Amino acid sequence: YTHQSGLQGWLFGRVNRLLRHRLPDGLARETALYWLNSTLFYAAELLVALAVWEEFGPLAAAFGFASVLLAPWLQRGMKDLYWCLWTWLLPLLAALWLCHCTRVRGKTPRGCWPLVAAACMVRCMCGFEFISTFLILCEAPLVYCWAGGDRRAWLRRIICTGFAAVGGVAAALGAWFIQGVIYFGSAAGSWQNLTGAVTSRVSLTDDMVSDVSVAQVLTRYFVEVDEPLLQFGPLTITLKPLIAVTLLGFALCLAVLALRKKPLAVLAGPALVWVLSLAAPVSWMVLSKAHAYVHVHLVPMLWHFALVPVSCALLVWLVKTAITAVKE
After folding, report:
1. Of 159, 179, 221, 223, whose CB has the highest number of CB atoms within 10 Å?
2. What distance lies between CA 278 and its chain's CA centroid?
3. What whole-number distance in Å separates Cα of residue 172 and Cα of residue 120?
C-alpha cells in the first residue's frame, strides 16, 4: 500500500508522539487515538445535523443523527484509524457552509470555493476510495437550493463547486505524484505507481473483475447483502424496507398535498436530495467494480453517508408536511 500512506497516518503519528509524554503505555495511546477519531466523527455528524435542523426542523435532525448512533456498520468503522470516517464528511460540510453563507449574505463569499477544494483535497489525501460518492454529496446541498431558489444563480454555483471539488482532487493527486517522485526516485516510477493504482481502483486494469458485471455488483448490495443498516435491540431495518418506506412516504405526502391543493414544488428539493443520496453510494459500486465486489465488509458503510440519514430525516419531514397540510 505504498500509494495509500495518507495524511491521517501523519496526523495520528504526530498525536501519538505527543501522547507518549502522558501515556507511556502503547495500548492506552491506541485507545486515546480511537477516542479522538470517534469524537471527530461525531462532531462532523453533529454539524450535518445542525444543517438539517436549520432546514427541516429539530425532529428531522434528531432522527437523522439517531440513524448514526444506531448503525452497526458505522460503529465498527468509525474507530478505524486507517479509514478515518470523519474525513469522508468534509466535502459535504464545506458545501453546507457554502449554501448557508450564500443564503445569509445573498451571495457566495469567495473563501467558500477554496474551502470546498481544501475539503476534497484533505479527504483524498486520506484515501481516494469512494471519491465519487463524496463528490456527489458535495453537490447535494446546492441541488437542493437550486430546486427552491434562483435556478440560474444556483446552477452557476453548482458548476463552480464542481470545479473547486475536482481542483481539490487534482491537488491531492499532485501531492501524491510528488511524494512518489521522492519515494521512487523518478517521475516515471511515480507516474506508473499513481496510474496503476487509480486505474485498478476504477476497474480499468483489474483482472479480478473482468467477468463481473455492474448488474452483479448491484445485485450483491441490493439483494444479497441483507445485514441491518439500523439496529435498536431486536428491531432491525435493512436496505430494501428503508427504500420502500421512504418512497411510500413521498407518495403519501404527494397525495395529501394534491388533495389539499397545496403546492407540490415543496417536495422537489427533498426528492432530489434523496435521489442523490441513493446515487452517491451506487456510483462507487458502478465506478469501482473490483473494490466494491470484494470489500463487502466495507462498502455497505456508504449507505450511512447518504441514504440512511437522509431517509430517516426526510421521513419525519414528510409526515410533518402531510399533517400540516391536513390541518390547514
Report:
1. 221
2. 11
3. 8
